[in-house]
Amino acid sequence: MLKRLQIQNYAIIESLEVEFSNKLNIITGETGAGKSILTGALSLILGERADSSVLLDKSKKCVVEAGFEANGGKLIRNFMLKHELDGDDEILIRREISAIGKSRAFINDTPVNLSQLKELGSALVNLHQQFDSLELHDYDFHREVVDALSDNAGRIQEYRHHFQQYIKAQKELQELKDQQAESNKELDYIRFLYNELEEAHWKEEELEGLDAELKLLNNAENIKSSLDKIYFGLEGGEEPMVQQLKALIYQMNSLSSYVPAIPALAQRLQSAQIELLDIASEVERINDQVNFDADRIQMLNERLSLGYKLLKKHGVQTTHELLEVQAGLKDKLNKVIHLDERIAKLQEEVDKYLHAATEKASILSKFRKQELKPLEENVNELLTKVGMPNAKIKVDMKPVALGEYGSDMIEFLFDANKSGRFEPLSKVASGGELSRLMLSIKSLVARSIQLPTLIFDEIDTGISGEAARQVGVIMKDLGRSHQVISITHQAQIAARADAHYFVYKIESLGKIRTQIRLLNDGERIEAIAKMLSGERPSEAAMQNAREMLKGGAFKAAKRS
For residues 47 and 41, what is the distance between their CA atoms, to the nearest angstrom? Predict the structure, then answer.
């Protein structure tokens, strides 16, 4: 709800502030007094572009500020959370235009860009100016109207649950199919790499072991020669070390009766002899195993050559890393092999979710279809009342592919002159017709959905008498549950106001300025009488004005 609008240095407004009621607000005034300037200033708050040409005083900046009571609406709350802005019940929007045309916008004193301002503005205000009822050209709005009248909110929520499951599963399915297509391109090569490693039957640390064995075999003669010398020195020579130790032990034992420490030393020497005998035996065993084997060397060279080739091919350095590559290739093969099974299973899920979503969409379509005829009849009846007796609306519903809101495209078609040819609104409806059509439609859905503030700029163009009275009745009814602000020239509409504002010009220092004030009871009677009969209303016009206000169930606003 728009609580307050403050304008400084805009067009012919030097400084102006107005507070609005939460019901039906009517703005009247002489032609050229600046009524539509108010909506022009408000459009800045809603994100429209502007330049320095709007400045009254080119040396000062223009400031337009609007205070809204948001009442925690879902769209507004989500917007504030999305953009990390404070407050969702009271919102202050400020727009500044500098003398050089630079624009700045603020929401609760936080700088924002114009796209953010437009996003929030659309949730706060519906501004319907001449030739500017764009919502009526929006298929989503057409559907929302039908759904509101069909009480489809719960059904839409249920449908979207199934539809989103379907979309999610379908996305996963497509990703698997893409993965399969990509994998199939490389499948033969992956299989070749894997088979190459599999056929080699590598074991952990095999290449490292083969390399050590090859070094041993290539140096077999030198190794055997050295081992022979070691064995010969320990036990096989003319004076082997083991025999020398045996003689020394004998000599030491002969001294044991004379020297008490000798037996212990002899025991230690005997242990050394036993250890040397064991070493000699192990050297002999190793020597027996070391034999030059040309065939074995060739086999090792071939095996190592294959191994080094594969290490280089796969960019690794050890047998363990090569086995990891093999395991990875096997995993890829298994995934490709099992993709068909996964795709088949996921396809079943997609079909299941699609079937469920299709059923729910059919239910939505059924309830929408039931509402089309009553909607046409009710809107056409209202169009007659608001001065468009030859105009008819037709609601066209066509099946389309499943989407976020079902499988229907709903479009409002319009025939302004009983031609029998219904065409899209953008082609056949004038600005005034669109405004009255929008009023008729929104008056029907107002009890079903929470609408933002509705602002109508001269919706009464081309009507008078009973049609104007009916527009006033509809606005009054709409204002019982929503804030409505309307600029009008019709007394029949002005008489229905909960708050009546008068826009006028004053001359100050030789310059014309626009001002606005809230009228009290007496001022309202006079203003409406002037709308009926001119600048100098007769007593009959004054009485007529009183009757109109009484008939409009007016509860006069008191001047503060």
Answer: 10
What pLDDT, in 10s, does the model give residues 303-362?
A: 888 998 999 999 999 999 999 999 998 888 877 777 888 899 999 999 999 999 999 999
Give me Rg for the CA atoms of the chain. 48
What is the Cβ-side half-sphere exposure of residue 338, based on CA atoms within 13 angstroms? 7
Residues whose CB is less than 8 angstroms from the CB of residue 473 and which lie 6 or more positions away in sequence, other chains included: 385, 496
Q: Kindly write down the DSSP assignment for every residue of 333-346, as one continuous string.
A: HHHHHHHHHHHHHH
Order the strands of the 392-403 sheet from edge to edge.
392-403, 406-415, 423-424
Q: What is the mean pLDDT of residues 80-95?
A: 85
486 vs 461: CA distance, rounded Å: 12
Instruction: Convert the pLDDT of each residue in 123-164 to its tens digit.
Output: 888 776 543 444 556 788 899 889 989 999 899 999 999 999
Q: Quick check: 516 and 38 in contact, CB under 8 A?
A: yes
What is the distance between the terminal CA atoms of the chain, rounded to a whole angstrom? 21
3 state SS of 101: coil
Residue 387's pLDDT is what? 85
Q: Tokens in use for 514? A: 């626009």
* CA–CA distance, 382 with 471 (Å, rounded to integer): 9
Unique residue bearing structure tokens 């008078």: 464
Q: CA–CA separation, 168 vs 174, rounded Å?
A: 10
Per-residue pLDDT, averaged over 160-176, amounts to 94
How far apart CA 412 and CA 437 sit, in angstroms, is 11
Alpha-carbon gap, residue 151 to 530, rounded angstroms:
45
Beta strands in 236-385 (DSSP E): none
Of 332, 27, 18, 371, give the one whose Cα is nearest residue 190. 332
For residue 453, the Cα-to-chain-centroid distance in whole angstroms is: 26
Q: Can you say whether residue 230 is alpha, beta or left, with left for phi > 0 and alpha for psi between -120 and 50 degrees? A: alpha
Dist. CA 524–CA 521, nearest whole Å: 5
Alpha-helical runs (H) found in 386-456: 425-428, 431-445
Written as six digits, the tokens of 142 are 């057409």
CA 346-399-443 angle, 5° bins? 120
| pLDDT over 90 at 64, yes or no | yes
DSSP letter, residue 497: -
Residue 261 per-residue DSSP state: T
The residues, any chain, with a CB within 8 Å of residue 177's CB and separated by 6 or more, are 343
Percent of the chain with pLDDT over 90: 36
Tell me the mean pLDDT in the region 50-54: 83
* Residues 137, 46: Cα–Cα separation, whole Å: 19
Is residue 309 classed exposed, middle or buried when 0-12, 13-18 and 19+ CB atoms within 10 A define those classes? Answer: exposed
Strand 392-403 with 484-487, pairing: unpaired
- What mean pLDDT value characterizes the chain? 86
| pTM of full prediction above 0.85 | no
CA dist., res. 557 & res. 402, Å (int)? 52
H/E stretch holding 168 = helix 153-200
